[in-house]
Give the backbone structure.
Amino acid sequence: MFKRYETVFKIGDQQGWAAKSWNDEDWKSGRFVVDGGRVFWSRTKIDILKAPESLHPYGLQLHAYGEYEVFWDGVLIGKNGNPGQEELLGPEGKMWATFSIPTHLTEAGEHLLALRSSLHSFPNHTRIEELDIAYYDDLLTDRLIESSYMHLFAGAFLIAAFYFLFLFLSDKKEYAMLIFSISCFLFFLLILAEFIKAYVPIHYSLHVVRLQVIGILMLGISFLIPFYFSMQFPFPKRKLLLIIYAGILLFIFLTKYDYFELTANNMALSMWLFSFGIAVFGGYRKMKGARLVLLALLLSVLISFVASFNKSLFGGFSLILLSMFYLLSLRIKEQRLAYETSLVQSTRLRLELLKKNIQPHFLMNTLTSLIDWVEESPKKGVLFIEALAKEFDLFNQIEDQTLIPIAQEIALCRAHIEVMTYRKEVNYFWEEEGIDPEQKIPPAILHTLLENGITHSLPLEDNSVKFKLVFESNSECRCFTFFTFAAGARQASEDRDEGTGLKYIKARLTESYHSNWDFTSEPTNHGWKNVLKIYS
Amino acid sequence: MNVLIVEDESRIAKRIERMTRDILGNDLHFLTHINTLHEALKFIENSSLDFVLLDLNLNGESGFDLLTTAVSESFHTIVISAYQDQAITAFEYGVLDFVPKPFNRGRLEQAFNRAITKEKTAANKVRFLAVKKRQRIQLIPIEDLLFIKGAGVYTELFLTDGTKELHDKSLEKLEQLLSPTFERVHKSYLLKVSEVREIIVKPGSKYMAELKNGALIPIGRTKYRDIKAKWL
């Protein structure tokens, strides 16, 4: 639509310099310094290639440092601040300004843009960063449309940031969620900082502040993304490598401080390289999600080849953040599955505990003996019923708990012994040593050992079987030792009762202590010995 | 009669013992109680018994080992167990009755009566006959069995593959267990009714059943009428 020629500058102030016909052959091109807020002029020859449609004026958009007046073919068409009076009147105007050009001055052919400027804040920034001529309406709306899309995008990341922040607050151990939340928030700020120029007037003196903010945001994101990946795909010497990486980033950030774009580029590149290294390691170790992250990283490179720096930066970051999101969703799914499994497991254990009381072997044999006692000796029968009621009652109390005081468990064992005495007519004895009644233990563990002891042993010559529970504890672990003193004690582990009993004990221990326990069961020359160690 | 009780719960064992003495009265010649599987197996080997009353879960061990041994012997086995779900399996192995716990005198008496009055088991559930081989017990599926011939206190099992096996139970006891699939056609023969192809009348009022494999089995004169009615 138009062709721009080189801009030439001259320090000084003459109204005539605005004229299209002024001879500017002796004016300077390139950069130079204008200090003290002195007025200088710049002239830029422009060829308009095609006249606008009728009633549709062209506009001129400038991205330039300084406060200035705009002359088009010698006619003043706009004003951005007060050139030459900056100190006096204070900052005014904005870095990105749009002016409409009178229709009669936009026919095809040669035109001249002259700016009467002053640069109080950045005397060495005598240049027009960007210049665009298009339909005035389009110039105004295009940037707004672009920003509105980018803000939609930013909003999505803001919501993600809040969502994962709340998730983290509800479970403070999930640092990956916190990191992801912060990354999303920084990315949200980065988009805002980048596109704020479309609707908030920023004075040229503040432009650097904006670039510094963008730089700091980039620094944060460039560190957090690989940090996040390092949490998801842990690698050896993680801390050391992260510290080195942070050092490199800081170095990039602090040197070449004024070349904002170069700094951003270098940080983005380091971020990419380090993340790629981590993802390759994760992929090599076949960690879940590593391949997808690798793919996202490679795609972001592809974007950087086809799109401009700005677009590839946002496109690439978005892709990487999405892959981080995916990793989180994988982890959340894993956690949910683990949680569901644990729910099923604890329900199963509860049922198992309930079943102990109603399984036919216990119930029917007990009832048979009971009938016999009632028929033969009603008084003893009543005592037997009371003992049975006590055992049932104790079972009811512990039925829905995962840990109970040892005193309660011992009471349960004693009740069981009483019941079994009536059934088997063997003298069972219970002894304990070093018991701390406040100690907790999963329900019916000792009861199961006792049951096994009664089932699998024959009485000694004096028709007795003795059980002994010993408790010891030290700084490392708590230790319960359960002895059976009997004749012919044996254990058939493949046997169905025995098997389920041991499985129950192990499942209960895992439920409450994960892997911090140890259980052994072995014959001795006087009977049987079970040792249960719970590590702290 | 000689009775062995295998039960590891002393109170229940005493109950069974008391009731058995009561039910059998003067017919009871000998009764003992054993509470481990191992001792029971040893005892069975060296004694002549009429009944074994067996609990299927002894000291946490499955009594099915003992069950297969017991059913291969000449005596009848009555299972007394808390596990009602094991009843079908027990019947398949050829026990005379399954008494679920808790039980009373009436139920136990019913089990004994089954043997004493030679009442036939209502529905035939036996799927195997256990046969003692050298050092092991072999289970022979009932569908492999054609007919059984009494041989003194033993019986001979004739199988579809043409072989025969010796079994320790008497023809009377087997008749009890295998009815109504098998019919006592002769004082020495128990015959699978479905295997009969034809009944041949020989001169001199001699009756023979011809089986599908061509074997000829004599039919007792007194039994002929019943058999014919059933078969037709």
Summary: Chain B has a mean pLDDT of 84.
